Amino acid sequence: MAEGPQADPERPLSDAAYAALQDFVDDLIASNSFTEAEMMNTNSSVMAAESFDLAMRNVYPGVASGTVLTADYKAQAKILTHQRVTLAGYRLATILNSALAGVSLDTINESMKEIQDSVKMTQTGDIFNYYSLKGVERGAAAGIFLSCFAVGCLLAAAVTYAICLARRAKSSEKTTLHTPAVAHDTNV
Question: Which residues span the membrane (predicted)?
Answer without folding.
Answer: 140-164
